[in-house]
Amino acid sequence: MLNRSLSKKRRGYEVLMKALMLLSVGLTAALVLFLLVYVLIEGIPNITWELISTKPSYLTGHIGILPDILNTVCIVIATLLIVLPLGVGAAIYLTEYASNKKVVGIIEYAAETLSGIPSIIYGLVGMLLFSNNMGTSLMAGACTLVIMNLPTIMRTTQESLKTVPQSYREGAFGLGAGKWRVVRTVVLPGCVDGVITGCILSVGRILGESAALLFTAGFAHTMLTFPTGMKSPGATLTVALYVYAKEQGEFGVAFAIAAILMVLTVIINFAATAVQKHFEKRKNI
Amino acid sequence: MSNVINVKDMCLWYGEHQAIKNVNIEIPEKSITAFIGPSGCGKSTFLKTLNRMNDLIPGVKITGDIRYEGTDIFAKDIDVNNLRKEIGMVFQKPNPFPMSIYDNIAYGPRTHGITKKTELDEIVENSLKRAAIWDEVKDRLKKNALGLSGGQQQRLCIARALAVDPKVLLMDEPTSALDPISTSRIEELVLDLKETYTIVMVTHNMQQAVRVSDYTAFFLLGELVEFGRTEDIFSQPQDKRTEDYITGRFG
Amino acid sequence: MKKNQLMEKVIHGIFLVLGLITVGCVLLITIYLVISGIPAIREIGLVDFLFGKQWASTATEPKYGILPFILTSIYGTAGAIVIGVPVGFMTAVYLSKMASPKVKSVIQSAVSLLAGIPSVVYGLVGMLVLVPGIRKIFNVPDGASLLAAIIVLAIMILPSIIKMSITALDAVPKEYEDASLALGATPIETYFRVSVPAAKSGIAAAVVLGVGRAIGEAMAVMMVAGNVPNMPDSLFQSVRFLTTAVSSEMAYSSGLQRQALFSIALVLFMFIMLTGATLNFFLKRERE
Predict the structure, then answer these.
(1) Considering only the top CATH level, what class is A50-284?
(2) Looking at the complex, does the CB of residue B82 fall below 8 Å from at least one CB of chain A?
(3) Model-level pTM?
(4) Nearest C-alpha neighbor of B60 from the set B102, B92, B115, B18
């Protein structure tokens, strides 16, 4: 009785389901591996010192991506400089100041909505809102990216604020400190990990962004200087990849940029995990 | 009266830690056997070994010989799913699936290959009747089982276990999460069930062991200290440690 | 003392303003899209706009029917879901229930990487691998097609589906699984007949999230779908999505054509809001 094995039907189900699962996992893993290897193999041979250290010239047909690299750095810095105070401030309001549950609900709902809006819509609204007023420029692009990344910074900061023990706050209040003093001395230091995680995630998102930047920051490849150049249009690496691949058919350059982006993505992923692990460890002590 | 389960020299390790030491026990058919002892004495672990639910925990090693109706339950050709069909289990916390009452009961039979609607209907009704909950739920079989009260949920879980037609029912502190009224209903039910099933029940509550069980096994620090008829264990324990425990000197 | 109180109030006010910025942004985006999207719809007529089968914005007698884009977006998303959901779902079940912790963490970081790859990189690889591949395998004149877009979208929504399904499956109480095993069900039977139904709201949310991602994706689709405003009659047709309709003509558009692009964005926005509301519905149910 006991050693009667599973019925054929049940065994078939077992085998089928297990096969489907392994197939799916294998497919997913193979996809990642393929994308990584393919892009690196196609891209790395095309990365030359000349490519990354010069600017392009229409006269000679030479292509260099230095301006795009600098533009990317500028846009990342500008976006973070603006979004950090806004996002951290909003998170502090939600966890420290807000007493009305409805207000909190509305703000959180708004943040969720923002993170669900596709980048092409951001591009369009950014164009209407910023580019039409300050011209197609890195600054207009950065402003658009600020709205996109606001929910990320808010969420990571909020999460880290929730782990600041209530007793710290009570202790500080007990000493007669005012609300602002408590926030400045006890709460703000507690959200450093959230802010760093948020920054890393945002950098990743900015690096990968193209649709939101096409119509706000444009796709010029001229050399710009920070911060005065923020008023001029310029392509980030990702936008440059698109332009070179789709408009100019320069696949070698496109793959070189893709390989650079891929490596940066890997680094950002590891950094985000490492930072999270680091802070989790500290929290458990 | 014959024995359904025979255990010889059984030991169990969680990694380096030995949780059960050389247990020998014979569980009589169509009776209620209670396992008592302080928390962490290994009684629940031992219970879960009988239907091999411990297999799932990584790092567990079991030695010795456990026989169900004469068959070694750890033999290579044993199908653990059939073993668990024969030896059903009811858990400490009522754990109905988040589905309808009907689907909860039908889950086991369906798993074992019964698909005919009329057949399933009959099994559902019989199981619920045997678990003394039919009258309370017959009008809402399609409603979610999580809407029932704690005591009803536990009787539903008993009905669910009965639906696959087991011979033995293992119960791991089945009333510890329930109020006194629900507890006494479950106890009555268990007394009825022993006409048909062999019941092994872990309990923290010594009054409960006295009220319902025919045999009692006292566990301490992974050892089976004493096993015998319940009235003997509680009136004239042979071992000093049993006496200390049942008179409330420790535990 | 009074000065201090005043300062506290001012600071509270500042934080309140910061908190309300997100709300302001959502309102701003909505209002801008509605204001700039309405005029063209009024001029073209809602029915002609939404159900017109022809888009010829630069013709001497321009036609502004966006049915091809709407249908392409719907078919493309549906196709991506049909391919991406089973693969993602099966992967999630394996990782949540069966994989060793090591395998789980390795594959999960691979999936995060998949999520982090910029969409233009997907587009680039799609252009150079998928599009020629489809042309050769199916022997069609142009591989840039609805099918290519579907495959790229299916890959791009995988990470969202896998991550969210794993979260839902990990949260299924172990008690349910124990009960099923104790009834003689095998582990695999248990995962699919007990754990998955118990996590169904979360898995549904994962699917809706995937829908949102697929509808909103622009650049990768732009690079592989051919970008021709055809009705999506076949998988091998070159097509244009709602997202790409907005971006492909924006650079050189003017007048009514430009306004019509804003109207398309408004339609896209409606779709996104609808999926967002559905997502919230499922997430709320999951929490209960």
Answers:
(1) mainly alpha
(2) yes
(3) 0.90
(4) B18
